[in-house]
Amino acid sequence: MLIIGTAGHIDHGKTSLIKALNGFEGDTLKEEQERQITLNLSFSSLETEDKKLSFIDTPGHKDLLKTMISGAFGFNVCLFIVDINEGLKAQSLEHLSVLELLGVKDIILVLSKCDLCEDMEGKTKDILRGLSFKPLKIFHTSTHTNLGIKELKDYLLSLEEKNTDENYIFRFYIDRIFSLKGIGTIVTGSLNEGEIALKEKIICLDTQKELIIKNIQNHDSNLDKIKAPARVALSLNCDYKSLQKGFLLSKKGFFKPFLQIEAYVKAPNLSNQNYIFCVGTKQLEAKIHILKDLQNGQFFAQIRFKKPMYLCFDEKFILLENGRVKGGGVVLNPVNEPLNKELKLRLLNLLYDKDFSNAFNLLKNAHKKGFGLLSSYQRFKLNHSQALEIAKNLKEVFVDEKNLNIYDLSCVDLLKTHIDKILEKNPYAMLSAHSLALRNAWASEGICAFALENMSVLEFKNGIFFKKGVDFEKLQEKNLNALYEKIKAQALQVEAPYNLYESLELDRKSGDLMLKKLTKEGLVVRLAHNLFVDKSALLAFKEQMLNLLKATPLDVQTMKGKFNFSRKYAIAYLEYLDLDENIIKKDEKRFLKSNI
Predict the structure, then answer these.
(1) Taking phi first (over 0 means left), then psi (-120 to 50 degrees means alpha), and beta for anything else, what does residue 396 get?
(2) What is the pLDDT of residue 319?
(3) Do the strands 201-204 and 209-218 form a parallel or antiparallel pair, or are they unpaired?
(4) Which GO terms describe its biological process (predicted)?
(5) What distance in Å separates the CA atoms of residue 185 and residue 67, rounded to the nearest whole number?
(6) Are residue 239 and residue 306 in the same domain, yes or no?
(7) CB-based contacts of 574-580 (< 8 A; 24+ apart in sequence)
């Protein structure tokens, strides 16, 4: 498919040209008909058996520039329309600047009202001299005499369809919302990236509400799925009042919100001030902070928003000042990256050149404890496979493919030093990648396993790493006894198992097996999910509680005051007491039956 837009000065014949091409009357509003100007975007199509073209007709009035910009974000091809008699006017040139900033390069020059021109050759040359681009094609037309209309239509139908990268993720800025009886909420927009299918789950990023695609239409045709580029109408399972023009629909899990980004900006006399930031159909105030003046009105800048934005690497934008085009640019760093200014500028240079290999290298050096690739699409417009392929070609790195992390090899040395300290403190430590990762929040199990596997002082058996030369059976027995002694020493207020394991340098799996063995042998009793107590200490305490009950009932508050227990321990021991047939519970108090 192709989305073809119109651009040009007011009253140069944009809407009349669309009507001549496909019979669609775009100016349907009463005010449009009375004033004979286009006020809103209009959408239409031109279809043959094997080709479908979508049209976006934009207004040319200077006060409707924002409307033109929101339509231009969807253009694949532009019909740049100039009245051959008037030549290039103010809005002709401003619309051209929008097209240039948005990277619309396929521009067809349509010279209108040629039936009224007495010097077409001379006028054409004058117009071409004022253009900053070379048109794909030039057409001399008249909607009054149909001059050039058939030739233009045939040319448009001959254009090759555009196909976006199949790795791109569905992103869809809403341009209209309405509700139809019997159908429900409908949103329309230009699908510029990705694809979407019927019954698929999506998310409105602005509201964080999940939605389901109930129906897909492209110019009145119902479809099971559709891919960019295309004009699309989606029926959604939500109240239309919950959505707004400019809201962004996408797939869940790919985009995070940020209040500031870094970008390349092209604008003459840019300054540190507020501008209107336009992206897709969203328009909001933003503060520019110049990071570096490059040359000829080009800058690296930080852009700050009052509301969080879900922007993507390489996304184009327009800046407005006092309602006029100031400039525009492209998003380079859509996330808040904590780098000093020197490193940030180096990163922006690399991102501007799309030199991802050196960008990854810079980031892995800056983040000494790991650089994640989970957000690789938002940050670099790369899927996980593409990002991992680049990462694996870096030098001096460990790439954790499962957890999508890049580590400088110095991270492995950090872990080895940590392991050495553990063994120095406890030669009978039982280690695993999982237990090591729990103690080093920055490290994934993958890099922990790599560090453990590459230590010559360690042996491996039954999923456990331990000091070389230590007999494994004796190691298990020693740690079992140490665990039991630890539980006995803590008497009635024993720590949670994972704290016990950490103090003894035991991995959790081994520790759990040892606790099960102690419980099975009757040495330890499990009172609650994470409370294990020495059986002899428990029985002695039960006798103490029974003696107390002869004089007074027991409840949580009494247990907390009498034994300095937290609520957790007080409840656990009272519930254990409930198992005795001589105890009765009434109104959260425990009594001896013989006392009632």
Answers:
(1) left
(2) 97
(3) antiparallel
(4) selenocysteine incorporation
(5) 23
(6) no
(7) 575/527, 575/528, 576/527, 576/538, 576/542, 577/542, 577/545, 580/542, 580/546
Contact 169, 377 (CB under 8 A): yes
The one-letter code for the residue type at 246 is G
CA dist 380 and 387 (Å) reads 8
pTM of the predicted model as reported, rounded to 2 decimal places: 0.85
Q: Is residue 381 part of a domain?
A: no
The total number of structural domains in the chain stands at 4
d(C-alpha 341, C-alpha 52), whole Å: 49
Cα separation of 168 and 183, whole Å? Answer: 30
Closest CA to 339 of 354, 350, 330, 355: 350
Which band of pLDDT confidence, cut at 50, 70 and 90, is reported for residue 29? very low
Answer yes or no: do 100 and 240 share one domain. Answer: no
Show Cβ contacts of residue 14 under 8 Å, excluding neighbours closer than 6 positions: 6, 7, 8, 38, 57, 58, 60, 79, 81
pLDDT at 191 over 90: yes
- What digits encode the pLDDT tens for the residues 143-185? 999 999 999 999 999 999 888 888 899 999 999 999 988 888 9
Statement to judge: residues 317 and 214 lie in one domain: no
Average pLDDT over residues 460-482: 93
What's the CATH code of the domain at 558? 1.10.10
- What value does the mean pLDDT take over residues 407-412? 94
Q: How far apart are CA 23 and CA 45, in angstroms?
A: 10
Contact 172, 255 (CB under 8 A): no
Do 176 and 116 fall into the same domain? no
Cα separation, 157 vs 463, in Å, equals: 65
Query: Mind giving me the DSSP string for 449-484?
Result: HHHHHT-TTEEEETTEEEETTS-HHHHHHHHHHHHH
Whether residue 373 contacts residue 399, with contact meaning beta carbons closer than 8 Å, is answered with: no
Q: Which amino acid is at 514?
A: M
